[in-house]
Fold this sequence. Notes:
Helix content: 55-70%
Number of helices: 1
Shape: rod-shaped
Number of strands: 0
Strand content: under 5%
Amino acid sequence: MHVKKAGLISAVAALLTLLANLGIASACAYSGYQPEVPAALKK
């Protein structure tokens, strides 16, 4: 019983880690975008 429980916990942890990494990757794509600053604002 302990082996099955440990395997289930490991699988859930791996799935949650994957979901967290997907969330981080999508957030980085948006925060990495920086449009050009207009010349009027560069004073």
